[in-house]
Every structure is written in structure tokens, then in C-alpha cells.
Amino acid sequence: MERKGGVRIYCSPMKIALIQHDIVWEDPEATREHVQPLLERAAAGGADLAVLPEMFGVGFSMQTGRIAEAEDGPTIRWLSRMASTLRLAVIGGVPVRTDRGIENQAIVFDSSGLCLARYAKIHPFKYAGEHEHFSAGSAFSLFSLHGLRFGLAVCYDLRFPELYRRLVRSGAEVLVTIANWPAARVDHWSHLLKARAVENLAYAVGVNRTGSGNGLAYPGRAAVIDPSGKVLAEGGEEEDVILAEITQERVRDLREQFPFLDDSRTDIFPDLFSGEGS
Hints:
Helix content is 26%, strand content 31%. It is of the alpha/beta class. The chain has a 6-stranded mixed β-sheet with strand order 7-6-5-4-3-16. A 6-stranded mixed β-sheet has the order 8-9-10-11-14-15, covered by helices on one side. It has a two-stranded antiparallel ribbon with strand order 1-2. The two termini are 20 Å apart.
């Protein structure tokens, strides 16, 4: 948004492509080959941003010795190359080997292939033993694209509303969650995405994988929820590219009309809001 002569001028709508796809288990090269036509389809559909699932190249594997990449590894270079070749921003999940340990990261590239942000999953999924193989992140991550401010989250993070509220208090207007969320708890996925949108007056963008891996079925159901809780677009169980448009105007207008966020008791919950503006 820009201001000229006291008049607000909003950016044009942004088109997001949610890419829900099957994964060749622990085979990033084969999965990249499988995903490339879907990214090309997103670009042909006029997308400004394409979002891939958590650990999109290998599946939710704990075999970190086989699947983890360096911070400039082949899947990360491929994401950058796809972004610059297709001229669209891309978000994808990659297991990354860092000096802090192996992290489950969401990585963002702009349409020139430049890395805009990296986020390491703050809440490893202990139920599946993820905490025994991956180091937990300790910082939230935001980036700007097409005039909108985005915050990142990964899968199990969705169950922890305090992360999303911190992102919003720091300026996020769009909350992106990439996941390998199993079919057995698909209702939780849908309900929590809507909750994160409504309680934060923000867009909630959730991208989940399809197919099966390591004995689990995955339901897709990628979705874009607007700040009022309305489902703008939602996928089914099959591989698909789901397109939706979002606008900064919708977020700003709803937050002005319903200024619920202003009533947060920062005096009662200082720890929750101590990172505002960072």
C-alpha cells in the first residue's frame, strides 16, 4: 500500500498457486522431476507465488543421513532455478544441514531466484519422533512480496497459535503453513487453518501433500482462507494446482472494521508480545 495525498492506494491482487503433490519417498531427484510440470502449470496460470509442501522432495522421513542437504544443496538450487526460469516466487520445504543441526526448513525465493527467507520449524512433531532427528528452530520469519507481508510456519506449528500471533503482531498479513499432514487428522488441518485466519484477521495459506508415504495417507486439502474465515480455494485429495487471489486491501479493511487485535492484553501476556516489530 502507498499513500498519495492522504489517499490509500493498494497493490494489485496477488495470485497464489498451491501445489499439492505426491512425493517419491526419499528420492528428491525423482520428485523434483515430478513437480516441475506442476510449477510450470502454476506459472502458465499467472501465479505470482507457488507454494510447495513441507519436505516436498523426500517426504516426512526421519532418515536425515540420507535426505538432509547442505544450505546450498541440489533441491535448494533447483528451487532458485525454477523461480528465476519461470519468473515466479516459490516456497518449498527442505531438510537442511546447518551448523545448528539438521533443520526442517521452509525456504522462499523471489522471481529472480534470490532467497528472501528461511524458517526452521520451531515445533518438531514429537509424536513421530521428529525432535530426535531435527533441531528445533528458535526464530520466526517474515518476508515481503508484492506489497504484502508474509509469515512462515511448518506443519505441527499450526497447533500453536502463539507463533501466528507473534507473526501478525510483527506485521504479517498472510500466514503460510506448509505440511505433511496425515489423512487421519484432516479435520484438524481444516479447522486450525480457519482458526488461524479468523483470530488473526489474516489470510491463512496451507499447502499439504497428497498420496502416501511410509505407511501414511495424505489428503491434500490445500486451502486459502480469507481473513474473515471464508474459504477462497481448496483442493481435494488428488494432485492439483489450486489458484487464488489475495489482496492487501482485504486485510487492512477488515482490521479497520473489526479492530479486535487492538484488544490483546499485552500487559497480561508480555512474553507473547515481547517480539513485536522484530
